[in-house]
Design a protein that fits this description.
GNAT_dom, globular, three-stranded mixed β-sheet, alpha+beta, 22% helix, GNAT family N-acetyltransferase, 3 strands
């Protein structure tokens, strides 16, 4: 298994609880593809917003940061 994701839908909200990629495949675009795919599935199922649960120490370079 290369990776996977677990999410749920509540009304119009997609919550992504887990997203993982095997160490051998990290940095090759699989995580980004998987994230885009689950977002697409959420949109198909009527989701208008998405939340991704993560911690600051988990692959900080993977998740873009925005200044408020």
């Amino acid at each position: 298994m290369i990776g996977g994701t677990v999410g749920s839908k509540d009304n119009e909200c997609l919550t992504i609880d887990f997203l993982w990629i095997d160490d051998l495949y990290r940095g090759k675009g699989y995580g980004s593809s998987l994230l885009r795919y689950i977002e697409k599935v959420g949109r198909y199922n009527g989701c208008k917003v998405a939340f991704l649960n993560t911690f600051s120490f988990q692959e900080p370079d993977f998740y873009p940061k925005k200044e408020l």
